Amino acid sequence: MKDITLGQFFPGDSLIHRFDPRVKLIALLLYMVELFLVKTLFGFVFMAALLALAVLISRIPMKLMFRAVRPLLLLILFTSLLNLFYTKGDTLFRVWKLTATWQGLELGLFMVLRISLLVLSSSLLTYTTSPIMLTDAMERLLSPLKALHVPVGELAMMMTIALRFIPVLVEETDKIMSAQKARGADFESGGILKRAKAMVPILVPLFISAFRRADELAVAMECRCYHTDGERTRLKSMAMARRDHVLIAVMLLLIPAILFGTNRVAFSIIPKTL
Amino acid sequence: MKEQDMVEMIDLTFSYPGEKDGAVLKEVNLEIEKGSFVAVLGHNGSGKSTLAKHMNAVLLPVGGKVYVEGIDTADADRLFEVRQRVGMAFQNPDNQIVATIVEEDVAFAPENLNLPREETAHRVETALKAVDMWEYREHSAHQLSGGQKQRVAIAGIIAMMPHCIVLDEPTAMLDPLGRTEVLNTVKKLNEEQGITIVMITHYMKEATMAQRIVVMDRGRIAMDGTPREVFSRVEELKDLGLEVPQATALVHELHKLCPALPDNVIDEQEAADAILHLFKEGAV
Q1: Which residue in B80, B111, B113 is closest to A234 by CB distance?
Q2: DSSP string covering B128-146, please?
Q3: Which residues pair with A221 in a beta bridge?
Q4: Phi and psi at residue B108, in whole multiples of 5°?
Q5: Is the pTM of this model over 0.80?
Q6: Do A22 and A106 belong to one domain?
Q7: Per DSSP, which regions of chain A are E strands?
Q8: What whole-number distance in Å separates Cα of residue A110 and Cα of residue A103?
Q9: Do B99 and A227 touch (CB under 8 A)?
Q10: For the segment A239-271, what is each residue's pLDDT rounded down to a tens digit?
């Protein structure tokens, strides 16, 4: 349970920390789009190198970065295995009735890289941006939707609170699990169905407590004059500096660089002789 | 003079909708003076939390009136004026902190009040310094200790610059160290900044810090006076299901045996002094 790092923020003063959160969000979106444009191994190496550079600048420990991928390891492994065996092409080896292909190996490898880079890049964003700044940025980017009566401010507040309570509820789940184990509950043995059933004694108290917390939080927020109509100021201002313009420009320039650059580098793990 | 009182309750009656078994508060009359430190005692279900929630219009009276510096709390147009004047802190600090980062949480109220950014930043700094948490401004709230979290919650209220802070069992979930931290902070706010404090508690020792103690029982005010006056009524307090501080109880029992002892000590030091005095006089 302790492995959930979603929404965790590690304060710092690096260049990555100081970028305008709106710009960081857009840069992340561009990076993700670009990951789907990449078609060659060389391209992936290039994208990975860019991310590694950003991580180095941010001074977020690599160990922490990899912890973000760990929960998805199974998914990544599964999809790459599917790719390995279900892609038509030149035979690499056979297991039982399944044929692994060179092309499958390459596609699988791409899949591993793509998913990992997606997760790693978004983790870098949440590690280096405080959740409030992030929701603020989303609110500001989405603010044109206010004209369509989308409650952008309320949505942002909901996000903020959800992120705030993740560690609280994780801790609480641990506590409830220990309490139920102490009474002889068994969460580890049995099939999927039995294990799912064993979760009920955890979920019921967790939900009750979450509702009670929500109730108390609502009162506390009211006591601090929270209201949904009208403007709210923000402690932190958002102003784009030159570095932000540069980042956006670099991220935009990557698109043609990938399409006409890395994608044309004929470098593949598939042997030429086949 | 209505304006003189921080909070004034006149014949305040309250019952939760749908509950048949009578009112939670019955015709309570209470005035809280500006700058005072009042402790409200009472066992569970005595109505002390309900009473507190009327002080900043979280609950509105079913019968009677509540005035905050002369403003009727039932006046919906002046709701924010009331809530700005009387801030409220609760038992569980985790459930009051809205934002992940300390300084962002403290800024929550000024942001809601739509204050200019410089003013917001200034208030955050003043509030965090007032509770000695300024150096933690960039920390995540969930990494702090219980006492630190509760102090951040209090800073979040100070940032509204209230004239009065109501604390509903602020130390109930804290360890002894955290409890001392919070109590010292509260005392400091009262003494140095003249903020009126109303503290709901069931720790007798905490109540001795106050200038005045109000004891609630079944929706009514059972006792009202200085700690010395209230704690000298040991038998009555016991009937209300409350324990007096240990030192008071000890000297009270000794007083029965030896009437020369005073019957109104409130802490260990006074008890020791009284007993020592007795020995020096040679009465024993």
Answers
A1: B111
A2: HHHTT-GGGTTSBGGGS-H
A3: none
A4: -55, -50
A5: no
A6: yes
A7: 91-95, 98-101
A8: 11
A9: no
A10: 788 888 999 999 998 888 888 887 777 667 777
